[in-house]
Amino acid sequence: CAPAGGGSVPVLFCFSVFARPSSVPHGAGYELLIQKFLSLYGDQIDMHRKFVVQLFAEEWSQYIDLPKGFVVNERCKVRLVPLQIQITTLGNLTPSSTVFFCCDMQERFRPAIKYFGDIISVGQRLLQGARLLGIPVIVTEQYPKGLGSTVQEIDLTGAKLVLPKTKFSMVLPEVEAALAEIPGVRSIVLFGVETHVCIQQTALELIGRGLEVHIVADATSSRSMMDRMFALERLARTGIIVTTSEAILLQLVADKEHPKFKEIQNLIKASAPESGLLSKV
User: Fold this and answer.
1) CATH topology of domain 98-268
2) 8-82 belongs to which CATH class?
3) Which pLDDT band holds residue 155 (cuts at 50, 70, 90)?
């Protein structure tokens, strides 16, 4: 399969659950392979991790670490694998690398979810803040045909995506495609219902893709406070950041001199509910 000299060689590049056929110049080595992985999967690769490139060895019928001095001279299959667990995140947030996920804040849940009125108020505050700071918002609705649309109090003006779903996790192909269109996404701010089902499953899938997840404790709830409490504890142990709406918004502006600081400050003052949820984290 090797070219007679020069030219390109077909290579299958694998990362996580993805596999994409491409090609590299004949004689390409480690550095060019890394560059190709970044060009193909840069939006999914968490640069806080270390990786190793592995080559599929036919004689062993499995992947092996890329041999020292390896160059591509025939068709092959390579994959990028995390070398170690993610370095402890500091939880820094910047508007340019953040996306808000609003999960299933629907009318049918109103009578069943504890403190639903409070999380509606906080969710609306977060979405207003997102609009002020130019942060993309992705919204899902769980089986809206049967459970209704997002509550009227939540203003979805300017949302990048509003998507129906039947899967509990928000990580759908359409959501992954939307994230891929946003350069440099590192952090997801996640809120909605239910904490122990859709929020939990979404958060776990997102960190599995190398994204940092911030769950807004005063904007997420369940029918049962026990389910909510144990879900937040479990998620915090996995490295997910459990925080509050005020902390999120002020971290995003970061400085009193930020041009949107006064508007964010007024938003917090005007709409902060006295929620009992924070005593039940």
Assistant:
1) Rossmann fold (3.40.50)
2) alpha beta
3) very high
